[in-house]
Each structure stands twice: as C-alpha cells, then as structure tokens.
UniProtKB/TrEMBL annotation:
<dbReference type="GO" id="GO:0005737">
    <property type="term" value="C:cytoplasm"/>
</dbReference>
<dbReference type="InterPro" id="IPR039100">
    <property type="entry name" value="Sdo1/SBDS-like"/>
</dbReference>
<dbReference type="Pfam" id="PF01172">
    <property type="entry name" value="SBDS_N"/>
</dbReference>
<dbReference type="InterPro" id="IPR046928">
    <property type="entry name" value="SDO1/SBDS_C"/>
</dbReference>
<comment type="similarity">
    <text>Belongs to the SDO1/SBDS family.</text>
</comment>
<dbReference type="GO" id="GO:0005634">
    <property type="term" value="C:nucleus"/>
</dbReference>
<feature type="domain" description="Ribosome maturation protein SDO1/SBDS N-terminal">
    <location>
        <begin position="16"/>
        <end position="102"/>
    </location>
</feature>
<dbReference type="Pfam" id="PF09377">
    <property type="entry name" value="SBDS_domain_II"/>
</dbReference>
<dbReference type="Pfam" id="PF20268">
    <property type="entry name" value="SBDS_C"/>
</dbReference>
<dbReference type="InterPro" id="IPR019783">
    <property type="entry name" value="SDO1/SBDS_N"/>
</dbReference>
<dbReference type="InterPro" id="IPR036786">
    <property type="entry name" value="Ribosome_mat_SBDS_N_sf"/>
</dbReference>
<dbReference type="GO" id="GO:0042256">
    <property type="term" value="P:cytosolic ribosome assembly"/>
</dbReference>
<protein>
    <recommendedName>
        <fullName>Ribosome maturation protein SBDS</fullName>
    </recommendedName>
</protein>
<keyword id="KW-0539">Nucleus</keyword>
<comment type="subunit">
    <text>Associates with the 60S ribosomal subunit.</text>
</comment>
<keyword id="KW-0690">Ribosome biogenesis</keyword>
<keyword id="KW-0963">Cytoplasm</keyword>
Length: 358
C-alpha cells in the first residue's frame, strides 16, 4: 500500500527578512520586508514600495509562512486589498530588529550623540575642546545608555548635564554682538555681569553701544528678550566658540594698525602652495572645461573648485579657508588664493587680511 505525502499548500516560509508587526482587533498581522529598508521608507528616502516589501502579502506569522485570513483582514482594516494593508502596517507597525542590527544602530547613535557633545562643550579648566574619543570614554564612565526612541540632540544635552556633575566640562559659549541705545549702557553691563558673560570688545558711538561678548547658550533666550526690551539688536557671530585662535575680537573688528607684512611666513607659504596645487589640478582636468569642473568639489565659502577628496579635505584645514570663514561672518566676499598673495606682496594696508590674528 503506497503512502501519500501531503505537503502544505499556500505557505511561503521567509528567512533573513525584517518583520513589521501590527496588532489590531485582537489579531496579529505581519509583513516581510527587506533589511535596512523600513527606516528608509519611513524617513522618505526610499520611494519604491517594491524595494521595501519582499511580497505584497499579509501574514499572521512570517517565520512559519502562515497567511492572514481574509475575514480577519476585512474585520481589522475594512478591506482585503493586500497592498493597502501592507502600507498601513509599514507605517504604523512595530519593526522587529535583529540583535546585530540593533547593536549597530545603538553604536551609530552613540557616536552621533558623542559628536554633538564634543561640538557643544569645552574643558572648563583648559578652555580647550575634548576629542571624540575622550567624550565617548566619559560617556561610558557615567554608564550612559542610548534611548532609540529619543533624538540624538536631546540625549546629547542630557549627557552634557550629567557630565557636568562629575567632570570639568561646560557648554562652549556663544559669541554675540549686542547693540543697545547709549542710555542703556549701565543696564546692559550689569546684566552681562550677572550672566558671567565675557566681554571681548566695546564700541561706543554718539547714540548707541555695541558689545561683543560670549555667553552661555542656555542664556540666549533671556539675552534676546532683554535686548528686545531695550529696543536693541542681537547678532549671532558664532554658535559655539571652542576652537583655538577663534576667540579674539580682532576677527570681527577692523584694526588698521596691523599691517599685512606682519603675517608670518608660514601663512604665505601655505596659501602659495595650495594655490599652486589648485592650478596644476585645473590644468590636468581638461584645460578647465565645464565637464572637468562638474567632477570637482566646490567650497562655497571660498567660492573655489577643489579637486579630489584628499585635496578637498586639506582645503578645509588651510589658513585660506579659515580666513574666508572669518570674512563670511563679517558678510564680506571671499578672497581667492592669488588675491591673498597679491595683497601680501604689495603691502596694501586696506587688505582684509590685516585682521588675521595669530
């Protein structure tokens, strides 16, 4: 007597997938998606539904390949259209993440939080910024755990407050220009003293006073409200001041007593070297044709095309780029590398390089 082998019909077993689960009307519904695609869909990066769903099918259990019953779908969603139901589950369902994927996400968000903390803080004793590795080590010492349901910026601010309890760390100050009527000078000075603000420069004229100061970012709203109450004006010069050589008022005020000839030789050589490399690269990119420029990276600050990635990164570390950043804060047009050299050679006292401080 022969035996009949009965095989299950209508079952599709899926492995190595990302499962999105939604419970509704007492039933569990699941859809099978490609890994690392659900978050891209929800953030709007991925637009093609077929690149997200492995099949336009609703399951009651993906791992066992059990399909959801039509009557349960109609009862829960009011329709049996599989694609529409998949879209609702994709948007509202809970993503089941594997252990390694979750660990990778936590590690990436931990790094993002540490980067934000590094950008917003300085050492209160040395007034110098911490490195990213130091920040991560301090976060491990306070046993910080990433909350995947909270934004990185919000958690970074919480980390800063917790680190301040145990280590010499503080928020890097904001640099502001405050302009008020002259009769309110004493009130402004008194208020800045109560905020422990550092005054870098004062400029008094016949009817108004302009002060460049550095205050704690947490006081920005109070400062803005106070200046508005005195019919004054507030201007943000720097959101975070913690770079060495970036705290001197000469970067924002004009001083004609400093001649370009006083610039060190190293600055001239660095600008000349970078200019020469850019010229050589322009010649090698097809004699400056339009197609060659499209392939180049453009620095919007210096309004210059920089070639390969290595030279592009070096450009951001150059004195030329740093000087144009300071010109940008003063709403001045950028200088080309050749213009910097020309100004140095002729010793023009009106050149904007004269406010470069070392």
């Amino acid at each position: 007597m022969s035996q009949t082998i009965v095989q299950p019909i209508g079952q599709k077993r899926l492995t190595n997938v990302a499962v999105v689960r939604l419970k509704k009307h007492g039933n569990r519904f699941e859809i099978a998606c490609y890994k690392n695609k659900v978050l891209s869909w929800r953030s709007g990066v991925e637009k093609d539904l077929d690149e997200v769903l492995q099949s336009h099918t609703v399951y009651s259990n993906v791992s066992k390949g059990i399909l959801a019953k039509t009557k349960d779908l109609t009862k829960a969603f009011g329709t049996d259209d599989q694609t529409k139901i998949c879209l609702e589950i994709l948007d509202k369902g809970e993503l089941q993440v594997a252990g390694k994927e979750r660990e990778s996400q936590f590690s990436s968000q931990f790094r993002d939080i540490a980067t934000i903390v590094m950008q917003k803080t300085i050492n209160s004793e040395t007034q110098r910024p911490y490195t990213i590795n130091m920040i991560e080590r301090l976060m491990h010492e306070i046993h910080f755990a990433v909350d995947p349901h909270s934004s990185s910026k919000k958690q970074a601010l919480e980390v800063i407050r917790e680190l301040q309890k145990h280590f010499p760390i503080k928020r890097s100050p904001m640099r502001l220009r405050l302009t008020v009527p002259a009769q309110n000078f004493s009130s402004l000075t008194e208020k800045l003293g109560s905020w422990s603000a550092s005054i870098a420069s004062k400029d008094e004229s016949a009817n108004q006073l302009s002060v460049i100061c550095e205050v704690d970012p947490g006081l920005f709203r109070d400062c803005d409200a106070f200046i508005r109450s005195m019919q004054g004006r507030l201007e943000i010069l720097a959101v975070s001041v913690h770079c060495e050589g970036d705290t001197h008022v000469d970067h924002y005020d004009d001083h004609e007593d400093l001649a370009p000839a006083s610039l060190p030789k190293e600055f001239t050589e660095s600008v000349a070297e970078l200019s020469e490399r850019l010229q050589k690269q322009a010649l090698s990119s097809g004699n400056g044709n339009a197609e060659g420029q499209v392939k180049q990276n453009k620095c919007s600050t210096c309004n210059a095309f920089v070639g390969d990635s290595k030279l592009y990164r070096e450009h951001f570390k150059s004195d030329w780029h740093k000087h144009n950043l300071r010109r940008k804060t003063r709403q001045l047009p950028p200088l080309a590398a050749e213009e910097c050299l020309a100004d140095l050679e002729i010793g023009d006292s009106n050149a904007d390089l004269q406010d470069y401080s070392f």
